[in-house]
Amino acid sequence: MLSLYNVSFQHLYMLKKDFLKLLKEDEEFRHAVAGLIGYEELLEGQREIREEIKKLWEEVKSLREGQEKLWEEVKSLREGQKKLWEEVKSLREETIELRKGQEKLWEEVKSLREGQKKLWEEVRGIKTTLGAIGARWGMMSESAFRETLRGLLEKDFMAKVEKWVHSDTQGYVFGYSAVVDIDILIKNGKRIALEVTSHARASDVAALKKKAELYERVTGNKVDEVIISSPFIDASAREAAEKLGVRVYTAA
């Protein structure tokens, strides 16, 4: 067994020795061995290159798929952009229409304001006319009613009605110098200060009370009662009459 091992070892040794000798001495053999070694290296390199190319193709495939997705995204974005531009165009047209409508509305508002201004001028004119007519009618009514009342009291009730007129230089009634007048009803020695007006206000009640007080001061005659008569009496006039002790006669 040992002898066989020795023989095999010697044989391998001799082969190696011969192989090295051939490499050293035989140029053709040396080139052939080098070629074989290089071919193996080439094969290995080729395999590596093929693997790399395969990877590159896979990468290219992945890039193409990604590129296709990007183009689809670009296409979608372009379609969206197109829709947005159409929407912008529509909004611009709508804005133009709204501006035109707004201008028409402003013209209408301007026209309405002018019309309203004319109406107010007309109303003011009517109010002025009515005020003048009312004032004239009120004075006429007051005067007619006063004279009627005077006639009734003097004829049917045997009472005397006199108009007292006085120059209030001290301004006791109105706070400044003025001529004041008041109707005084006299019966059985009793004196009543009477005021008949178409519309009674708080200031009218206060003025009547002041006139009655001034009458007492100037004439020395006591006023037993102060009365104001009117178809229209303000709430403030009623309150003033209650506080000042003035009797009110009205239709309501």
What is the strand and helix layout of this fold?
Elements: H1 2-25, H2 27-156, E1 160-168, E2 178-187, E3 190-196, H3 202-219, E4 225-229, H4 235-244, E5 247-249
Parallel strand pairs: 3-4, 4-5
Antiparallel strand pairs: 1-2, 2-3
Helix pairs in contact: 1-2, 3-4
Brief account:
The protein is of the alpha/beta class and 252 residues long. The chain has 2 domains: 1-142; 159-249, Trna Endonuclease, Chain: A, domain 1.
Question: How would you characterize the overall build of this protein?
Answer:
The protein is 72% helix and 13% strand. With 252 residues, the chain is of the alpha/beta class. The chain folds into two domains: 1-142; 159-249, Trna Endonuclease, Chain: A, domain 1, CATH 3.40.1350.10. It has a five-stranded mixed β-sheet with strand order 1-2-3-4-5, sandwiched between helices. Strand 2 (178-187) and strand 3 (190-196) form a beta hairpin. Helix 1 (2-25) crosses helix 2. The radius of gyration is 64 Å and the shape is rod-shaped.
- Sheet with the most strands: spatial strand order: 1-2-3-4-5
Strand residue content: 5-15%
Fraction of residues in helices?
over 70%
Q: Tally of extended strands?
A: 5
Low-confidence stretches: 126-140
Structural class: alpha/beta
Secondary-structure element string: HHEEEHEHE
Mean pLDDT: 77
- For the record, give the distance between the C-alpha atoms at the N and C termini, rounded to a whole number: 157 Å
Q: How many individual helices?
A: 4
Radius of gyration: 64 Å
Shape annotation: rod-shaped
Q: Estimate nothing, just give the exact number of structural domains.
A: 2
Main sheet? 5 strands, mixed
